[in-house]
Write a structure and sequence with these properties.
The complex is a heterodimer of chains A (250) and B (486). Chain A is an alpha/beta fold and 250 residues long. Chain A is built from ten helices and ten strands. Chain B has 486 residues and is an alpha/beta fold. Classes of the chains: A alpha/beta (250), B alpha/beta (486). The complex binds adenosine-5'-triphosphate (ATP) and magnesium ion.
Chain lengths: 250, 486
């Protein structure tokens, strides 16, 4: 599904990712953990194709094709989804308007008929129940005045609507209370299927109790310094990043 | 098909990019010689079959204008080379349309033109439930829905027809809100106006449908000087829509219209404009000079006048739809979106003159600048001595796209009554990269993202538009910003 080879990324004149190698097979869920500022979000943005995240070396193949050759929206239309660590507010644009534009952009890309307002409401209803998204949240402007938890739930809701092939969740568990965490995890688990892969960035092993990953990676100082099964997350929780990052820095 | 669908479909049918209304219709027209002098004014007056009093009025206006020729207003933040008023035509009428009695008599070429513009006059009459008066170059070519309006007692026709049929009404109100001496362009308009719409809604009548005028400049080197007069008698209500387009031409064309509104006791007038005159090309060649005077008088107690405008076109816009709040408890509103891209310049805003007690006004202005455009909000709020407990709220928001454009806010506030209150809020913002990336990560193109974000920015104004126009206006917002990013 996704094959990252020796990826170097520069942000603001500074090399943040210094050679990432990571392969995620079809249907797999990988977790990425690591200290603040280690480059986790940078990896997410570089995969999404944001401006300002300049790839200075390496390759990324996505479903056999060169991901880096595509613009941010082309990647999205090809099924790449990023749940933002800090979801963005768009004043005056109702949630439904935003979502319909997003869903229709993808449908156009796939040569499907666009959904009109009525059809879209029907389509949304089903998904809304699963994630307990109240109507009110869809009528309000995108993310404006949402609580931290609401913003995160809204990201997963968008993911459910857009049915991506590959999803990156950047700290989607941060700031959630226990119930919301379960809800978000259930939402994500419901989307797990053989044709869909995910990269889950988190600081807390607790999330991985709910979303059980196939692999766990530790990112420090712009490199993956350790990979393992889900027991690696438990080990990190006990011992912290200290030992790993010290070894790397040496 | 509902009017909204029709509007949406029309806009879609208009294609992918660029100015969609830039075609020229091949129609023989009847044109006055170039230039302007007393003879031309008399020529126009004769063509229109004016009564004596109207010719006199025109001549008074012309003589005043002649004396002021060098006093074109220069205070607006717009720049353009001097206009040679002798190098333009002041009268051009499609030859075949010598006042048609019904749509059947209208030249099929003309009807086809309006179809292309998305104003199928035939269908409009049958389906959309919007009465349309279409002004082509200088002459009103068709007014739809006459029958139904007559039943309600609403008079809706071209102003020439009104002069002929309802001279008393026209004489009483014409120039009563915007006198011929008001300003340079209004004076010019008073001398040479050729057509426009007239509406009279009798006492207690709620006009059963939206009334609408589409203006179209077709002929080359022709100025368009239409004059619109709307009178809402006691306790009546009318909603009026105005739309405009012009073909693409290299030279600038002058549009100097005057709109006068009069609302008597408890009457309400809602006036909406979607102005999409040709804006010129990327380098600023061609485009309409839109120098327009629009003013409404809330003469009666508890009367209300609401201006909503979406200004996306024209090379230069100079326009301040205003309200004179004479009646006690009267209400004035101004909701505006002004989008400027490339080399466009807009200096627009409003004047709210509070005369009566407990008068209220609301101003919401959204200015969007992209490319090398310059956009200025200029507004005056005046609380006169007798405006006891009057209130104004003004909100002025500017949005910049790119770093070569400019946005300016020039509020004038004059308060002569201690109990009056004026509130003013202003913001300037940019579309953030975060917002763009967020939308694009969801699959939208950069242009779609800009259109979405800008529509969100304009929401408070867009929601003031009647449904028929809202969809069209939203699409227009996107279209007019094409090429502003990426
Ligand atoms: N736009 C930017 N401009 C300047 N520096 C940046 C930018 N984005 C990221 N960086 C820097 O790159 C480094 C990695 O940042 P990144 O956001 O990827 O870390 P992270 O692992 O996601 O951290 P956290 O756990 O706090 O979310 C940091 O030192 C950060 O300051
Ligand atoms: Mg991060």
């Amino acid at each position: 599904m996704l094959e990252i080879r020796d990826l170097h990324v520069r942000v603001d004149e500074r090399e943040v990712l210094k050679g990432i190698d990571l392969t995620i097979a079809r249907g797999e869920v990988h977790a990425v953990m690591g200290p603040n500022g280690s480059g986790k979000s940078t990896l997410a943005y570089a995969l999404a194709g944001r401006d300002g995240y300049e790839v200075t070396g390496g390759t990324v193949r996505y479903r056999g094709a060169d991901l880096l050759a595509l613009s941010i929206e082309e990647r999205a239309r090809e099924g790449l989804f990023l749940a933002f660590q800090y979801p963005v507010e768009i004043p005056g644009v109702a949630g439904t308007t935003f979502l319909r534009a997003a869903v229709n952009a993808r449908r156009r890309h796939r040569g499907e008929r666009e959904l009109d307002a009525m059809q879209f409401v029907k389509f949304v209803r089903e998904k809304q129940a699963e994630l307990n998204i109240p109507d009110d949240m869809l009528k309000r402007p995108v993310n404006v005045g949402f609580s931290g938890g609401e913003k995160k739930r809204n990201e997963v809701f968008q993911m459910a609507l857009l049915e991506p092939t590959f999803a990156v969740l950047d700290e989607t568990d941060s700031g959630l209370d226990i119930d919301a965490l379960k809800m978000v995890a259930n939402g994500v688990n419901a989307l797990r299927e053989p044709a869909r892969s995910m990269l889950v960035i988190t600081h807390y092993q607790r999330l991985l109790d709910y979303i059980v990953p196939d692999r766990v990676h530790v990112l420090a100082h712009g490199r993956i310094v350790k990979s393992g099964g889900r027991e690696l997350a438990l080990e990190l929780e006990r011992e912290g990043y200290g030992a790993l990052t010290a070894a790397e820095a040496a | 098909m509902s009017a909204v669908d029709a509007a949406a479909e029309t806009v879609e049918a208009l294609g992918e990019s660029g100015y969609k209304y830039g075609f020229v219709t091949d129609i023989e027209s009847d044109t006055a010689p170039k230039g302007l002098d007393e003879e031309i004014v008399r020529f126009i007056s004769a063509k229109k079959g004016d009564p004596e009093w109207l010719l006199d009025w025109r001549l008074k206006a012309y003589r005043l204008w002649e004396r002021q020729q060098d006093e074109e207003p220069r205070w607006a933040k717009v720049s353009y080379p001097p206009i040679d008023y002798q190098d333009a035509y002041y009268y051009s009428a499609p030859k075949s349309v010598d006042r048609p009695k019904s749509l059947e008599e209208v030249d099929p070429e003309l009807l086809a033109t309006y179809e292309k513009l998305g104003i199928p006059l035939h269908e409009q009459e049958m389906l959309a439930g919007v009465a349309v008066d279409a002004v082509f170059d200088s002459v009103s070519v068709a007014t739809t829905f006459k029958g139904e309006l007559e039943k309600a007692g609403v008079l809706f026709c071209s102003i020439s027809e009104a002069v002929e049929k309802y001279p008393e009404l026209v004489r009483r109100y014409l120039g009563s809100v915007v006198p011929y001496s008001d300003n340079f362009y209004a004076t010019l308009n008073s001398a040479v106006f050729t057509d426009g719409s007239f509406v009279y809604v009798p006492e207690g009548v709620r006009c059963p449908m939206e009334l609408s005028t589409y203006f179209r400049i077709n002929a080359a080197n022709t100025g368009q000087f239409e004059r619109t007069l709307i009178v809402a008698d006691k306790g009546s209500y009318v909603s009026y829509l105005e739309g405009c387009t012009a073909p693409m031409r290299d030279e600038h064309q002058l549009h100097a219209a005057v709109v006068e509104l009069v609302a008597l006791d408890d009457a309400e007038i809602k006036y909406s404009t979607v102005q999409n005159w040709y804006p010129g090309d990327e380098e600023g060649r061609g485009g309409i000079y839109n120098f327009v005077t629009k003013r409404g008088a809330c003469r009666g107690s508890r009367s209300r006048i609401s201006w909503t405008q979406v200004e996306t076109g024209s090379a230069i816009t100079w326009k301040y739809p205003s309200c004179i709040l004479q009646g006690d408890h009267s209400v004035g509103e101004f909701y505006s979106i002004a989008i400027t891209n490339n080399r466009q310049q807009a200096d627009t805003g409003t004047k709210m003159l509070h005369v009566g007690r407990d008068t209220r006004s609301t101003i919401v202005s959204k200015g969007i600048s992209a490319g090398r455009a310059q956009s200025t909000y200029r507004g005056l709020v005046r609380m006169q001595g007798k405006a006891e407990s009057a209130r104004n709220f003004t909100q002025c928001d500017s949005l910049l796209i790119g770093d070569k454009c400019g946005a300016h806010t020039v509020p004038y506030i004059e308060v002569r009554n201690r109990s009056a209150k004026v509130e003013h809020e202003a913001t300037t913002s940019k579309i953030s990269d975060d917002q763009m990336d967020y939308c694009r990560q969801r699959g939208m193109s950069a242009e779609e993202a800009v259109a979405l974000i800008v529509n969100g920015f304009c929401k408070e104004v867009l929601q003031e538009l009647p449904m028929e126009f809202a969809v069209e206006a939203q699409k227009l917002v996107g279209l007019s910003l094409e090429g502003s990013v990426g």
